[in-house]
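Researcher: Good morning. I'm working through a list of sequences from a screen, and I'd like to move beyond sequence-only analysis. For each chain I'm collecting a predicted structure so we can compare shapes side by side. This is the next one on the list. No need for commentary yet; just the structure.
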Amino acid sequence: MLFFNGGYNNSSSNSNTVSRFLSYIDTIPSDLIDRKYNNLNRNYNASLTLNYDGFKSLIFGIYNFFNIDLSLANDISINRSEMDSRVSDLDTLTNLYRQNDLLTNNNILTNFSYKPGFSLRKSISKSVWEKYNYWFSMGVELKYQFLNQKNESSFLFRNLDRNFTAFTPNLNMNFNYTKNNAYRINTYLWANMNQTPASIDQLYPLVDSTNRYSIIAGNPNLKASTNTYSNWNFDISRAKMNTKSNYSASIGLNYNNTANAVSDNLVYDSSGRSIRYLINVDNQTAISGNFSSRFSTNLSKLSNINFSYRLNLSTNERPGFINSVSSTSTNNSISNNLSATYSLIDKFNITIGETIATNRSIQQSSSRISSLIRNYTTSGNINYFLTKELTLNTSLNYQNNIAANGNSAKATIWNANAIYRFMQQKAELKLSAFDLLRQNRNITNFIERNTATTTISNGLQQYFMVTFSYYPRKFGGRSGVPPPPSGAMMIVR
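Model: Good morning. Structure tokens for this chain:
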């Protein structure tokens, strides 16, 4: 059995950065940098999988080996990334842009991977008429990876050719069970291991001087990281015909551990400037989980109510160093979302919801520092069907974001729409009003390692939009060529 896959991607980007740096410390000079970046990227990838399913009969002959399928597997892949980066700075004396020889470069990275091994698969199923049926499958792949990483650069110190080897098994299990006219269960478990070598920018980075307060120092002695990942999911739902109520629920767990993980030794000087010296640490661990549930019931022939709840949890531990002192950063986040919807068929529906999210960071070194950010969102949405043709809609979202220092940023976003359908529901005219209270702001609170950041930026505030759309029931004509999409849009601010 032979499988082949390949791809090619070509992209280019142009950007301009003006950095004005004013220092009040004598050791750091003030300057102005006007810098242009022109990048061209080309990416090639190809993979080939060759499986020999006759391996079982070759080894065991006529014996069925407990009905376990056994086959040889060979995976070959190659990825090639080509980058042409041209960087130039403004010369204030001549008012011309001149090439920056410290950042302008060509770089070609090629990763070649070969994974030989064998796989074992077994499945079991049973069905009892009008009672139940189930299906179970399990697969194990035992493979060994040979990886070659080659980097060719116009900077000689970034040229390298390295080889890595690692045992990279994976496991997958699936189970489905259905009890007739009662419920349905589905669960799966997936786990794998893989090896990730340090990137060229971690080994030999090119330092851009526009960022004066966060500098990365490479480490050519970084080891390859080994990642172990597993995921388990469980779903249950009602499978009963002509029932008044329905329910469903799911649970998911994710585990990720990285041995020889790349971390930081952050060194701060008296001005607050940081230099990131990259190092290997024993382990980094991340665990996350989620739970969701839904319940709906018919209150009458024309009305129903629906409740849904979702919980997300995550924790990750990242060891490192700050000024050469061991420091472990732990981030814990919790998000709760609850919503309820009431529907009166052909009349209206209303949805209300509440989201509460917290993110706590703990920095443990010679002392313990804890930071907490909180986000609250209350939402409501109403659809009112005046006629079969005319629908009115309004939504309201109240956001309250409390940063690590206790400061609160609040915003209320109110939107409204009027939708009219005509021409036998084929055409739609929609009038939309966004941010009627003129409070739209982009508020972001996040904690990463030992840094708590709050970003507040002004977004597009109050504006009105008229949209016309046409939905033909039949596309194309006798020529077989589909017509272009229809529609017109006008925005008024």
